[in-house]
Design goal:
The structure is a single chain. It is built from five helices and 14 strands. It is α+β, with helices and mostly antiparallel strands and 307 residues long. The chain folds into three domains: 2-53; 77-121 and 134-170; 180-303, Glucose Permease (Domain IIA) (Distorted Sandwich). Strands 3, 6, 7, 8, 9, 10, 11, 12, 13 and 14 form a ten-stranded antiparallel β-sheet that branches. Helix 2 runs parallel beside helix 3 (139-168).
Length: 307
């Protein structure tokens, strides 16, 4: 076989003689061996890429991470439900105290207990939804419970406002406005406003007036009202809180012994506790606070307004 070669540099065509076996070998290399090698190389490259990107261990890692995230989300949901259940229990406890206070007010005012019945839930109703099975508490159940509790509290609030108006309309103004001293003997040991804190030495705001005296001496109510707190309270020690209506509330802190309970009706000058040094206190005294419409006011004005 002769191959004719034509080049620019050569003056004329030249030829190369190739024998028939060499021709066969050349064709075999071009059309068989080279494509075969290319296929093998491509298969190896694809195999390496598959091994680098689709290894079973990678999928296992992804699945494990996903399962962990689901488990964490589930745990967080359970924690949220538990916290919501605790809050619901606290609100229900407050509702119980409010009901006791309301019932006591009805008795003091000698009103119709059937009209102001704090022992029964507010009247409400509706058809039962058969698709809801209360087998165990879930977030939706807790939300419904909170809605029911909110309805009950709104009902109680309306009744309490009516009762408060009743008391105000019974010419009780003179006995329900705080006036006078909460002790019979003693002296003012700390005034209302900014002072040096006796425990840390820093300048801090004092919300009341401290009146020191003999341990065990009487603490008296400065006005008539209903006891809304009786017992230990953070910072105050044993404390009595009285709601006098018309926006007035008084507090008596650090008591040695409390003689009244929540829901009790008290009169002006009644002994409600004995002086002590419970809670955050350096010695026997009573911490006396006056609140008007939710804001702390200076009790000194009421101490001087004795009637």
């Amino acid at each position: 076989m002769n191959l004719i070669l034509i080049t620019k540099k050569a003056s004329g065509p030249s030829s190369i003689h190739i024998s028939q076996p060499r021709v066969v070998l050349l064709l075999l290399v071009i059309f068989v061996i080279i494509p075969a090698l290319a296929m093998v190389a491509g298969f190896q490259v694809g195999k390496v890429q598959t091994r680098n990107h689709l290894l079973p261990s990678d999928w296992e890692e992804v699945m494990t991470r996903s399962r962990d995230e689901v488990a964490q989300a589930t745990q967080k949901a359970h924690e949220d439900v538990s916290a919501l259940a605790v809050k619901l229990a606290q609100l229900q406890a407050q509702a119980v105290r409010l009901n006791a206070l309301g019932q006591r007010l009805v008795e003091v005012a000698d009103l119709d207990s059937a009209e102001f019945d704090f022992s029964q839930p507010p009247a409400q109703g509706g058809p039962q939804n058969d698709s809801i099975l209360a087998q165990q508490i879930d977030p939706e159940d807790l939300v419904h419970s909170l809605d029911d509790l909110a309805t009950e509290l709104n009902d109680r609030e309306q009744k309490m406002r009516v009762l408060e108006s009743y008391f105000m309309n019974q010419n009780l103004q003179q006995t329900t406005v705080p006036a006078g001293r909460p002790i019979k003997r003693g002296w003012i040991s700390s005034f209302f406003g900014m002072r040096t804190d006796p425990f840390n030495g820093r300048r801090e705001y004092h919300k009341g007036v401290d009146l020191a005296g003999k341990e065990g001496s009487d603490i008296i109510a400065v006005a008539a009202g209903i006891v809304t707190w009786s017992g230990d309270r953070y910072g105050y020690g044993n404390m009595v809180e009285i709601n006098h209506g018309n926006g007035y509330i008084t507090r008596y802190g650090h008591c040695k012994e409390v003689l009244v309970k929540a829901g009790d009706s008290v009169t002006k000058g009644q002994v409600i506790a004995h002086m002590g040094s419970t809670g955050r206190s350096t010695g026997p005294h009573v911490h006396f606070e006056v609140h008007k419409n939710g804001r702390v006011v200076n009790p000194l004005n009421f101490l001087r307004a004795a009637r």
